[in-house]
């Protein structure tokens, strides 16, 4: 059971953005995609619409550090209790992993079961892998903006 660490440094990251990045990296790590797919996906001239793929699970993702001005923060007891609840859930997950290791010790020598990474990608899993650039794509940002302007949910300012 290896643990890998990815450090993302930037001015801002969105929760789903990090999960999307990790989803693609899992596909590369499972050798379903070539490492070059990351650079190709960033070329919006060549690929203005992203292919549909599943996000990575939020469970193993940890926000480790942020730089903020903490001088005026007020932390309520309710928030501390919520943090404790989350950490208790994480402790439960870690305990299950320990039980799993104990069970695996009962397997014949040399026998391995390596399916833990399949739970790190959310959504449906197909039996036959379909490469990213052969999948349906999501609407481009421009098309989504036009859609909301047409529905009068968004006002276009020039």
From TrEMBL:
Which of the seven top EC classes does this enzyme belong to?
Answer: isomerase
UniProt domain Pseudouridine synthase I TruA alpha/beta: residue ranges:
5-69
| Known EC number | 5.4.99.12
Record keyword Isomerase present: yes
A single cellular component GO annotation: cytoplasm
Q: Does the keyword Isomerase apply?
A: yes
Catalysed transformations (reactions): uridine(38/39/40) in tRNA = pseudouridine(38/39/40) in tRNA
Query: Which InterPro entries does the entry mention?
Result: PsdUridine_synth_cat_dom_sf (IPR020103), PsdUridine_synth_TruA (IPR001406), PsdUridine_synth_TruA_a/b_dom (IPR020097), PsdUridine_synth_TruA_C (IPR020095)
- Residues spanning the signal sequence: 1-20
Q: Name one GO biological process term.
A: mRNA pseudouridine synthesis
* GO molecular-function terms, A-Z: RNA binding; tRNA pseudouridine(38-40) synthase activity
Q: Which Pfam families match?
A: PseudoU_synth_1
Entry-linked SUPFAM superfamilies: Pseudouridine synthase
Q: What does the sequence similarity comment in the record state about its family?
A: Belongs to the tRNA pseudouridine synthase TruA family.
What protein am I looking at?
Answer: tRNA pseudouridine synthase
User: Which species does this protein come from?
Assistant: Diploptera punctata
């Amino acid at each position: 059971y290896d643990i890998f660490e990815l450090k993302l440094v930037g001015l801002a990251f969105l929760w789903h953005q990090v999960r999307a990045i990790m989803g693609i990296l899992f596909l590369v790590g499972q050798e379903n995609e070539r490492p070059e797919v990351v650079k190709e996906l960033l070329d919006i001239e060549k690929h203005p619409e992203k292919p549909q793929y599943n996000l990575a699970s939020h469970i193993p993702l940890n926000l480790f550090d942020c730089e903020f001005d903490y001088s005026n923060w007020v932390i309520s007891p309710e928030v501390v209790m919520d943090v404790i609840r989350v950490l208790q859930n994480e402790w439960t997950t870690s305990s299950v992993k320990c039980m799993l290791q104990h069970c695996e010790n009962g397997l014949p020598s040399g026998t391995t079961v390596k399916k833990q990474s399949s739970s790190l990608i959310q959504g449906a899993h197909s039996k036959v892998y379909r490469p990213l650039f052969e999948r349906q794509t999501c609407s481009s940002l421009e098309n989504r903006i036009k859609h909301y302007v047409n529905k009068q949910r968004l006002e276009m300012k020039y």
